[in-house]
Amino acid sequence: LLIVLGAGFAWLLKLMTPTSRTADNRLIIAVAILLLFSGVSAVFDVSPLLGCMTMGMVFANIEGHETLFKQLNYFNPPILLLFFVRSGLTFDLKALVSTKMVGTTPLALVGFLYFFVRLVGKYLGAFLGSAVTGKPKEVRNYLGLALAPQAGVAIGLAALCARQLGPELGGTLQTIILVSSVLYELIGPASAKLGLYLSKSYDASGQEPAGS
Predict the structure, then answer these.
(1) Is 209 helix (H, G, I), strand (E, B) or coil?
(2) pLDDT tens digits for 123-148?
(3) Dist. CA 192–CA 159, nearest whole Å
(4) C-beta of residue 157 within 8 angstroms of C-beta of residue 191
(5) pTM
(6) Do residues 26 and 17 touch, judged by C-beta distance below 8 A?
């Protein structure tokens, strides 16, 4: 149902925003359809986050709408800012030292364990996947470094779980994701850049190598 709704609204967006309309009209219609889709998702009790991702995936692959896609991108900075501020408001620092949520283990320790286990899992998964598919050594050895960042989608899913699972279990999960996301944002960009550099995807000047 989620995939059907996402794909259906993507095609509705395509039909309602022909190139004959002005750029302002297409932008207004696009925002209205996005809000409508969020409401429909709530009615059918499906995830608006995953549904919007499906809708965006289908729409991004529809040719002839690059202009509208760029227009929607202008909304990203303020919306992302509000999203992360809202997430930070739910971050309970006192919960990190609590030993009542996950047995007798401090929540901060659980967050750090999740942080390291995810890094190891990402690297091993990328390494084994590259080895099975016969990718070059540069890709096999360093792709995992580029997969370290984590933020938006994970935080969004954690917020969704917090609403559906209740304040105790859902709040615990959200706190773990938030504390690990802070750590990932501290090392993620540098790790991704290092992975791209070591794999020779670009040179020291930031340019892609010839023939890439």
Answers:
(1) coil
(2) 899 899 988 988 888 888 888 888 88
(3) 26
(4) no
(5) 0.63
(6) yes
